[in-house]
């Protein structure tokens, strides 16, 4: 059985190095998300970053594979089978993501206290990179394509310690 450390991950070392240079400067939240987005556009890996088994996903829901984690950032690959989606949520830190396959359809919301208001949509396609920082990062994501989707997510937090990038889920009405 292979351990995570022994799996060949093309492009991961270069990505880690570049992100470490950015986070070492201690940028603000949005500045970090924007700088990592520029880097990710230049160094977006391919689906070969994951093993064939990891790329298969799970029929039970989307799967997140933590590929690297350290105190100030983590890199995860998220695998979404067609139709799989997240709950409405926000994040503990800034996030930058790049789409390798599939379509991540993102619905954005604003919290009005007792309800959410839908404020926008984004249809993120292969090769596209985007980023955001709290506050104002409430969203739900769904793979709307007919193929299994893979995306790379960089978070400004140590997922080894936190277990997840999600700060809060929202179970209030959307109006």
List the helices and strands and how they pair.
Elements: H1 12-24, H2 29-43, H3 52-55, E1 63-70, E2 73-80, E3 89-91, E4 95-101, E5 104-111, E6 116-124, E7 129-132, E8 138-143, E9 149-155, H4 159-162, E10 166-169
Helix pairs in contact: 1-2
- How far apart the termini lie comes to 49 Å
**Second rung of CATH, namely the architecture:** Sandwich
Provide a count of the helices. 4
CATH topology: Jelly Rolls
Global shape: globular
Trace the largest sheet across and list its strands.
1-2-9-4-7
Unreliable spans are: none
What is the radius of gyration? 16 Å
Q: CATH homologous superfamily - what is it? A: Jelly Rolls
How many domains, in number, for the residues?
Answer: 1
Overall pLDDT level: 94
Q: What is the string of helix and strand elements? A: HHHEEEEEEEEEHE
Keywords: Dioxygenase, Iron, Metal-binding, Oxidoreductase, Thioether bond
Pfam families: CDO_I
Organism: Nonomuraea glycinis
Binding site for Fe cation: 89, 91, 139
